[in-house]
Amino acid sequence: MPKAQETVLEINLKALKHNFEYLKSKLNTNTKFLAVVKAFAYGSDACEIAKYLQKLDVDYLAVAYVNEGVALRNAGITKPILVLHPQAVNFKLLIERCLEPSLYNAKILNEFIAVAQQEKQTSYPIHIKFNTGLNRLGFCEKDIDYITSKIAETSSIKISSIFSHLAASEDLNEKEFTLKQIESFKTISKNMIESLGYKPLLHICNTSGILNYPEAHLDMVRSGIGLYGFGNSEKENKNLKPVATLKSIISQIHHIEKGETVGYNRAFKSDGFLKTATLPIGHADGIGRQYGNGNGFVTINNKKALIIGNVCMDMIMVNITNIDCKEGDEVIIFGEKPSASIFAQTVNTISYEVITGVSQRIKRKLV
Ligand SMILES: *Cc1c(COP(=O)(O)O)cnc(C)c1O
């Protein structure tokens, strides 16, 4: 691998293929795979990731918002795209670009039907979301008759899938709750199918659902974090490979004497001789201020260098007193080692936040 010459997010498509195949190996051959590529494919590069997954013949893609789906269509993605949280103001555009909305309450269902009729659609594919305990988005069980009566009134839309989302699939202490969500979803979908007279696809599992609840894979699974290399457990993290590696370089090295300070607000005060390195990455790049003052670290020549002082907008300073390195050397923020989940733990967050937080000004590079 050539060494980084600036701050760069490397995206490893081989790792993506490995993760996709590993997750697929957990499924029955007739269970469909929906790849979640929202939020720039978890901070990597949604177009490149989606193009590659389309080549691997993924069944479905999902994004959160309409503009994310439009970007995929502009990049030549032809697979069906589920929009998890569309806003009514974008429904005309959504239809123009053949994106499929998740509809989760009466208001949004009626707003969508109105636009679909106005746009003279017939059997436009939609997805009905039920709330089974996350209490975020979704119809409840008692809405079934209302939904099916609305659907019966119009030929403009047709339900492609019925789905729900698990609240704690990664937490085996919450197994009882998760099983209750799965049961409740099964009852709801059975009643929906009876009332509709046809059977849409059923899905409830995210990545941890795939790994922990094989009995709940149903017709399709929705995986995000697993594709990018994280399984929400140490055991599963070993079976997956991180897709993204965030690298930087050393811009400058300073020799600091006892009593001198480093960075804004003079937050770090040295109590002895110290060597520091300044790196071209800061809070505007996704390294939040909480990583400063000795909490977070980077890796230089396989050694840990603590972030000292306050994180600046475009830079951090790290302690390299005991590291043999020079200006221009490569720095690893996260990747294979340390993983983004280890990096995340230094400030009590999770891999999801770290990888989605890498700002768009950092160059993406396919490797
Ligand atoms: C983000 C999201 C997923 C993906 O979850 P992972 O834990 O990343 O696999 C699946 N379903 C819904 C509704 C989501 O919002």
Structure write-up:
By secondary structure, the chain is an alpha/beta fold. The chain has two domains: about 15-230, TIM Barrel; about 245-365, Beta Barrel (Lyase, Ornithine Decarboxylase, Chain A, domain 1), CATH 2.40.37.10. The protein is about 30% helix and about 25% strand. It contains twelve helices and 19 strands. A nine-stranded mixed sheet has the order 11-14-17-16-15-18-10-1-19. An eight-stranded parallel sheet has the order 8-7-6-5-4-3-2-9. A hairpin with a 7-residue loop joins strand 16 (about 305-310) and strand 17. The protein starts with 7 loop residues before the first strand and ends with a strand. The model has no long low-confidence stretch (mean pLDDT about 95). Pyridoxal-5'-phosphate binds near residues 36, 38, 84 and 165. Catalyzes the interconversion of L-alanine and D-alanine. May also act on other amino acids.
